[in-house]
Amino acid sequence: MHAGAARADRTGAEGQRVSGRFGAAAARLSGQAALLLGWSGDTFWNATPEELATILAALRMPDGETVDRGMIDRLMEQDRGG
Question: Is the pTM here over 0.70, yes or no?
Answer without folding.
Answer: no
